[in-house]
Every structure is written in C-alpha cells, then in structure tokens.
Write a structure and sequence with these properties.
Length: 207
C-alpha cells in the first residue's frame, strides 16, 4: 500500500459537488466525483482560499482499483454506506463513478435522500507528488490525484460534481412495469417506506 493510501481522512482534501439524479432498481448511483477544468473557490491546507480545478486525466488509473474505494456519509469513515463498482476517468464531464449502496438503514436513507436531490457527491483526495500547477498563490490546477474515498454530503463545493442516476436492486423500471401486474401497489409501499426513512410521514425518521 502506498503512503498516500495510508493517510487518514483528516489528511485528505474534501471536495464536494451537486448530485444530478437518482434511480432505484439496482441500488447503484452514478455520479460525477470531480468535474474537469472547472474552478471552485475552496479552503486550502494553510487556511487560504484558493481557486482550484482538476485537469483532465488527473485520476487516470483509478479504474484499476475501483473496488477498494469506499463510500461514506459526510466523509465519516464509520458511516460507510457502500463502495465503488467502476470509474470512468475519461468521460468528458469529469471523473464519473458508479457506486453500490449497501442494504442497511443508513443505505436506504442515503438512496432516498439522493433521489430527492438532498445529497451531493464529494471527493476525499490527495495530490500526487508533482501533481499541482500553480498560477500565483491563489490558483491551483491539480494534474495528478489519489482518491481516498467518495463522500455523500449535503454541502457541495463543485457545482459540476453531481449524481447522474440511482438504481435499486432488481430489474430496470421499464422491465418491471411490463412484468409486474401490481406495480402501483409496490410503488405505494416503496413511497411509504421512503417517507418513513426521511420523516415525511409526520413522525420521526427511523433509526
């Protein structure tokens, strides 16, 4: 394991962004972890505010270690909700990830909140040696980066980092609609469970 891989989450830079969409059938979420060539004004390691961007190709090679990257809520390692399934570092919009959410209470809550556009994608990353290009003291372009984990958080930093789709376990929605005669009832049960999870049924959210 590299020295970067051994760093704790408190030593990683945390960069958040907006979720774009959620779909339930396969319990997976597709999201943009880090948009390319898009500046964001972020707090730096020494307390300064800096204009930061990720160069295209900054995460090349991450696809080879996808199953080792975990997903957590609010960058807290004890609140793990799943893991990465695949990365697509060559997509035009940025580093795109497919993640699977575990079947736990926190996982169910995460899917519901993501579907309701209440969570954003976030990268916990560290620059590789020589992986930064500076223009003055306030503008940094990250050219090589190591991804420690993916966070799901309500506080975005990059507008271009977002959820693209969410899928639950099972068949795609269109196939289920054709094959399931009681689909309306099933959907009603799902909506009821989601309402309980996020406290929209008048009571407290389930724990």
């Amino acid at each position: 394991m590299s020295e970067l891989a051994e760093q704790s989450s408190t030593q990683l830079r945390l960069r958040s962004a907006e979720l774009a969409g959620v779909s339930f059938p396969k319990r997976t979420i597709e999201l943009i972890v880090a948009p390319y060539e898009t500046e964001s004004y972020v707090p730096w390691d020494d307390g300064r505010m800096v204009f930061e961007s990720f160069a295209r190709g900054a995460f090349d090679g991450i696809e080879r270690r996808a199953n080792r990257v975990r997903v957590n809520r609010d960058h807290r390692l004890e609140r793990t909700v799943g893991r990465a399934l695949a990365f697509h570092p060559s997509r035009e919009e940025g580093l795109v990830a497919e993640i699977r959410i575990s079947r736990t209470e926190l996982g169910e809550e995460t899917l519901a909140l993501a579907a309701d556009d209440c969570l954003d994608a976030s990268a916990g990353y560290a620059p590789m040696p020589g992986g930064e290009e500076w223009a003055g003291r306030t503008r940094c372009r990250v050219t090589r980066a190591w991804l420690g984990h993916i966070g799901l958080t309500p506080d975005p930093a990059y507008e271009g980092a977002k959820v693209l789709a969410v899928r639950h376990a099972g068949e795609p929605a269109a196939a289920v609609e054709v094959q399931t005669p009681n689909l309306d009832q099933i959907r009603a049960w799902q909506l009821e469970e989601r309402a309980k999870l996020i406290g929209l049924d008048g009571g407290r959210p389930e724990r």
